[in-house]
UniProtKB/TrEMBL annotation:
One of its GO terms (molecular function) is acyltransferase activity, transferring groups other than amino-acyl groups. PROSITE patterns: GNAT. Residues 1-184 form the N-acetyltransferase domain. The lineage of its organism: Bacteria, Pseudomonadati, Pseudomonadota, Gammaproteobacteria, Alteromonadales. It comes from Shewanella piezotolerans (strain WP3 / JCM 13877). It holds the Pfam family Acetyltransf_1. This is Acetyltransferase.
Length: 184
């Protein structure tokens, strides 16, 4: 079952996010800010996936015009004006639930919400070093197009100052694949 995220799931989302992505990836303050940026016109674009009340995954998404286009974005190569582009912040699925299409279902839920909010596309920085490059593969399968690769994307960011990558440690050298998904 996929439902809109509420603060009742924050502890579980933080625990799963830090387990999958690395310690310091999420905390209550950052998660609250992310979910707030996901609301527009009373519509929430952030979701959790549950089975028998157990959190299996989550999708965090910013509404268009509610996130900062930073040096890791290449809007000159986007096919949609920036004011109509949401941001797919994070898609996380528990290890035991991977490979069953849950990430795609969470993405579909966020796309539907973004469309209701007025967005025409979404951009994401996908973790190229995810297990079997699954992040880029699932986003490509959904129709995402590679815009640019950004080495060292998560190294010493103000967004995640205490982040410890599960692969690289505190000096993250992972690459982000900037990808655009346009909505039909």
């Amino acid at each position: 079952m996929i439902i809109e995220i509420t603060d009742a799931y924050f502890d579980e989302v933080i625990e799963l996010g830090n387990l999958v992505h690395g310690e310091g990836y999420l905390d209550h303050s950052s998660l609250s800010m992310i979910v707030e940026k996901g609301y527009k016109n009373g519509i929430n674009s952030c979701f959790v996936a549950l089975e028998a009340d157990k959190l299996l995954g989550f999708r965090l998404t910013y509404a268009a015009e509610q996130w900062d286009i930073d040096k890791w974005c290449t809007p000159s190569k986007w096919s949609v004006a920036t004011e109509y582009v949401g941001y797919f912040k994070c898609n996380t699925v528990a290890e035991e639930a991977r490979g069953k299409g849950l990430g795609g279902l969470l993405l579909q839920s966020s796309v539907a919400a973004l469309k209701q909010q007025g967005a025409q596309a979404g951009i994401s920085h996908l973790w190229k070093q995810s297990p079997n490059n699954s992040a880029v593969r699932y986003f490509s399968k959904a129709g995402g197009k590679l815009i640019k690769e950004h080495p060292n994307r998560w190294n010493n960011t103000s967004e995640h100052p205490d982040y410890i990558c599960v692969i690289c440690g505190s000096n993250c050298r992972c690459t982000a694949s900037e990808m655009l998904l346009t909505f039909n």
